[in-house]
Known about the structure:
By secondary structure, this protein is α+β, with helices and mostly antiparallel strands. It has six helices and twelve strands. Strand 10 and strand 11 form a beta hairpin.
Amino acid sequence: MANTFLTPDLIATRALATLYETTVMPQLVHRDFDADFRGRQGDTVTVRKPAVFTAAEFNRGTGIVPQNATEGSVDVTLNHFADVSFTVTTEQLALEIEDFGTQLLDPAMEAIAQKIDRDLLALRADITQTTTDVDAPHAVTAPEVLIDAGIVLNQAKVPAAERRAVIGPATNGRWLDSNVLKLVNESGSTDGLREAYVGRRLFGFDPYWTQNIEAPEEGVAFHRTAFALVMRPLEQTPGVQDIAIMNYKGFSLRVVYDYDIKYKQTVVSVDCLYGTKTLDANRAVILGGSGS
């Protein structure tokens, strides 16, 4: 027996879960989210950067020297407004949520997830450091290129924890064929990350791959705080009743229904608002070297 008509709330719940499970880059970078801030495209928000301290030699005679815990900040424009809208029939809206999700909603959310990944990866254009900055660099086709990336980040005094590397599909294939990664099979933390995880922690980095790095492939190694994804819930649309805005673990989606009387079908619109920003270009390095 067919289910009752799917509501925007039901669709938003399924859509948000799919988005969370299929993204790669958003799980790896610095995140900033405020569910109380309803934004519009072009709005600017101020994102706090982690405080920086200097360790001093303690002198018992003079005692401690307190430092001001002043956090840096950077302005981020909500410049990305991702949207996937599609028409559905009355029969399709009467499907079970699992069937509706498999046939229509999951592909729509995968498209949004890919767009967010690509927009974050576009920040590579801000990075000037490359693995060719070290003596005798390895080729990017070998996972040992991460040794060179580590040298560059170490020289920039980048923290050793929370370092990640993201490569493209062709590079991933070559890495998996290397002796370093053969017979390795470990997982990440979400469905999308498990599928994207290359193997195990390599030379101080958690390695991932994504189809959204296209030829010519240009991978990137970075600390979590090199890049930021800033997401804000969209505003409530005036006069629209069939609408749902939902938030989950730093992700936010809006689902809106609009009935098209001319063609007697419903338009389902799923959208989200976010901004991407390079927080510190010195905390990232482009993977490239001889033979790459």
